[in-house]
Design goal:
The protein is of the alpha+beta class. The chain is built from 30 helices and 23 strands.
């Protein structure tokens, strides 16, 4: 008689993300962990839709022929909606241990039927889960456990960010069901030190040795990092090693402080594999080398992000960007990102961080010294001696990565074509967004537009990554300058300042041009100089003037820019043009700036730098080295210009997306779902989508908004570092009470050369624009394009964070302002009114009075 085989049966090694919907969470998680290199017992899985007739052929599968004679198995239920965010079904579905090969069929059938039990039905009803309790089943080799345990990567009772390990002798069934009193160990994550221990009632000696506690602690941290979320892990020890038999998200209230509740966007908004904040990372484990179970203490930075994001981003934008940025980087970097190092972006305590450990890895893979990357981010103090040396990874490690390395290299080579295509795609997107008024659309139509936008963002963001890839060219130019003994900054900075301006610098130039228009009309001049600073009546007061026409054109071109413009909860310049009008007014108080003279001086400086550089070259170097440096510098300049334009284009689209959100927000207020418009931006995207799909959920949105506002208020008191290892974050939440005196001198990274003496104006937010004085040195933490009008008034710039690619650097160079970045604690050590000498070329600020 012919035996029917289950054609869809797979081993754990063969499971892919596509199988998740049919094999269930437990089986999928075990497969994913095994593929990532964690010690999970081997097994086979089959989906929930396999018929019982097919199940009877299970024991005849060839996989069992490869197992030892007499082997025993664990048969585990794997519910389709099990081990998900907020519902683990712990203890609800059946598990059978020590099952012989001849008993497998009956055990599998019992496990499948447990999904339709009264207990499972009651659990689903209490969690408002739909579906009929479909169950996948997976069969694993039974581990002869000498010790078993359950562990949590955050304390499930106190929410403390520490490991809690319960262990007892024998198999884990009695422990999980509460039949035995286990040993309990509380372990500090930073150094795996045992903070406390308690023996179980029946245990005379500890179940685990100190060495075993350290070993399982390392493994737990690796699993938490792999999923980028707190985990509830079941494990066992067979006398030789630990085995992981299950891992699921912690669904109790005890999430780690600062770890966001797991979020996802509405179904269909992103491609499969998208990382939702606080949930599992995309299943790329089959595409990467197996990681070590030794968990690295991930290194995080928000220096670059602090430039473009406010201290607290609206929850809606924050968690959406976490999803979109991780998906964009996953698509762009491919296997160059190591799964064991976790996501490239992650939110802690309401602030977005970037994974420096992943970036160090990429530097090592391509043979680039990490020091350059760290300096560009503003972390010079974190540079170790070994970071100055580029050591390429061994060929064995590089070979599997070559397709991704080649793909990224080709993108870099095609940067100009990609930029042109991006320009066309931007115009097409804008045409779609502006072809209809949001107020005329239904809720569902507004939602569909937003889903379309968020689906294209990860692909659009990749052009920013391409344009930001300047480290290789900068390194090559630096080597050439060192070879001939000419300062890198003296050659490169004048070339970046001269020629075509970036869109942000052009905004400053056009603003100065508006001041020239205003000077020609005494009505305009008087209005601007005498206004109280709100400029709310400008349309009526200046109707019919050439200035108002020109200013409207300025807003058409730059009105999408604004204060922390990446957060679509905040208004744009076209909604509140007061900062631009203030800058124009301040221009009128002094002599008109000669923009043409500035451009001519920059061109002359650039030409002189080339002549001096060429004078150092031998005849041979002029034929070989000089063309290479010219080509590299020409491309570097264009990349800086392209990058600013790409970021501007993305913000142009975001401006119109904000209008769609505002239309929905107004409706939610009209219906009484929210008390005020801005509460809308406290809601997460999926919460808005659920209310649109089911209006009965609308009245509950205000309570969600109030809880989230209370959480934001609590997190607002925290002062998070720009750089930290993950284990250090809890103890670094408070800024030191005082900053040590600077002995009259501060140092930083020169991003635009020159020197000037003037008083400083210290500002912590662009909303303080009215405190700026013409001729002062602007001192702040970081700048984005909303600060551009203030650059037209400054004679120099000092920022606490930022590198060569930062907004402050680009504008300062092109506008001819000396500028220093990475001046630590500048806003604390300098006070408005202090007179200083800013020697940007020398990297120093000296307080004169």
């Amino acid at each position: 008689m012919m035996i029917m085989m289950i054609t869809t049966l797979k081993t754990l090694a063969d499971v892919t993300e596509r199988d998740r919907a049919t094999i269930g969470g437990k089986a999928y998680n075990c497969a994913r962990l095994r593929q990532a290199g964690f010690p999970v017992p081997d097994g086979i899985v089959f989906p929930a839709d396999v018929s019982e007739r097919e199940i009877h052929s299970l024991a005849a599968d060839p996989w069992f022929d490869a197992q030892p004679s007499g082997a025993l198995y664990a048969v585990r239920s794997s519910g389709i909606d099990e081990d998900g965010v907020g519902h683990s079904f712990a203890g609800i579905h059946e598990t059978h241990l020590n099952v012989s090969r001849g008993e497998l069929v009956e055990a599998v059938l019992v496990c499948r039927r447990s999904g339709r039990s009264e207990q499972a039905a009651a659990y689903r009803q209490s969690r408002h889960l739909e579906g009929g309790g479909a169950i996948g089943v997976f069969v694993q080799r039974m581990v002869p456990a000498a010790t078993s345990g359950v562990a949590f990567t955050v304390n499930p009772v106190t929410s403390a960010n520490e490991l809690v390990i319960n262990a007892a002798p024998g198999i884990g069934e009695a422990l999980v069901s509460g039949q035995v009193d286990p040993d309990e160990y509380v372990v500090r994550k930073h150094d795996r030190a045992i903070l406390s221990s308690r023996l179980g009632a029946a245990n005379a000696i500890p179940v685990l040795t100190n060495g075993q506690i350290t070993a399982i602690g390392e493994m737990l941290l690796g699993i938490e990092a792999h999923y980028a979320a707190p985990q509830d892990v079941e494990f066992c020890h067979d006398g030789r090693q630990f085995w992981i038999v299950q891992s699921r998200p912690i669904t109790t209230a005890g999430a780690a402080p600062g770890t966001p509740a797991p979020r996802t966007l509405a179904p269909g908004t992103l491609a499969p594999g998208t990382l939702a904040p606080g949930t599992s990372a995309p299943d790329t484990s089959t595409q990467h080398p197996a990681p070590s179970t030794q968990h690295p203490d991930i290194e995080w930075t928000r220096a670059n992000l602090a430039e473009v994001l406010p201290e607290q981003v609206s929850p809606q934008a924050l968690y959406s960007f976490e999803v979109m940025l991780n998906e964009a980087q996953r698509q762009f970097m491919g296997k160059l990102l190591a799964p064991e190092l976790g996501p490239i972006f992650k939110v802690f305590y309401g602030r977005m961080y970037m994974n420096l450990s992943q970036m160090r890895r990429v530097c090592r893979l391509i043979g680039s010294p990490a020091a350059g990357m760290l300096r560009s981010l503003g972390h010079s103090e974190q540079i170790r001696p070994e970071d100055e040396v580029g050591t390429r990874a061994p060929l064995k490690e590089l070979l599997p990565l070559l397709p991704d390395i080649v793909r990224i290299g080709l993108k870099d080579a095609r940067a100009e074509k990609l930029f042109i295509r991006h320009e066309h795609e931007t115009e097409a997107a804008l045409e779609r967004l502006t072809s209809v008024r949001p107020e005329s659309l239904t809720d569902q139509q507004l939602w569909d537009i937003y889903q379309w936008w968020i689906s294209i963002v990860p692909q659009s963001m990749q052009i920013v990554f391409v344009m930001s890839n300047v480290l290789f060219r900068e390194t090559m130019i630096k080597k050439a300058c060192q070879l001939v003994g000419y300062p890198y900054e003296k050659l490169v900075y004048p070339q970046l300042a001269a020629g075509q301006r970036s869109v942000s610098s052009q905004q400053a130039i056009d603003l100065v041009g508006l001041a020239a228009v205003a000077r020609q009309d005494h009505i305009v001049t008087r209005y601007l100089l005498e206004n109280d600073g709100s400029f709310t009546d400008i349309a009526s007061a200046l109707a019919g003037t050439s200035f108002l026409t020109a200013f409207k054109g300025f807003l058409d071109q730059y009105g999408h820019r604004g204060r922390y413009e990446s957060d679509w909860a905040l208004p744009r310049l076209h909604e509140n043009p007061a900062p631009a009008l203030f800058a124009i007014r301040e221009q009128l108080k002094g002599i008109a700036q000669d923009v043409q003279a500035l451009a001519e001086r920059q061109e002359a400086d650039a030409a002189r730098a080339w002549r001096e550089f060429e004078a150092r070259l031998t005849w041979w170097q002029r034929s070989t080295l000089l063309p290479m440096v010219r080509s590299m510098l020409r491309r570097l300049k264009r990349q800086y210009v392209w990058r600013e334009k790409v970021r501007s284009n993305l913000t142009r689209i975001l401006r119109h997306c904000r209008e769609y959100h505002l239309a929905l927000a107004a409706r939610f207020v009209e219906r009484g779902w929210l008390s005020q418009r801005d509460d809308y931006f406290l809601l997460l995207i999926e919460e808005i989508g659920e209310a649109i799909k089911d209006p009965a959920k609308g009245p509950g949105l205000q309570a969600i908004a109030e809880r989230r506002e209370a959480q934001r208020a609590a997190e607002a008191e925290l002062h998070l570092p720009l750089h930290a290892h993950q284990s250090e974050l809890p103890r670094l939440l408070r800024r030191p009470a005082s900053v040590a005196a600077s002995n009259g001198s501060l140092t930083g990274l020169c991003v635009s050369p020159g020197a000037v003496e003037a008083e400083v104006v210290v500002m912590r937010d662009p909303s303080e624009f009215a405190s700026m004085k013409r001729g002062a040195i602007l001192v702040t933490r970081a700048t984005d394009p909303s600060w551009t009008p203030l650059f037209t008034l400054a004679t120099g710039v000092i920022v606490e964070v930022g590198g060569m690619l930062s907004h402050a650097s680009t504008i300062a160079r092109e506008y001819g302002l000396p500028a220093l970045a990475n001046v630590k604690h500048a806003t604390d050590l300098l006070k408005t009114g202090d007179r200083v000498r800013l020697d940007a070329s020398g990297g120093r600020v000296t307080v004169l009075s």
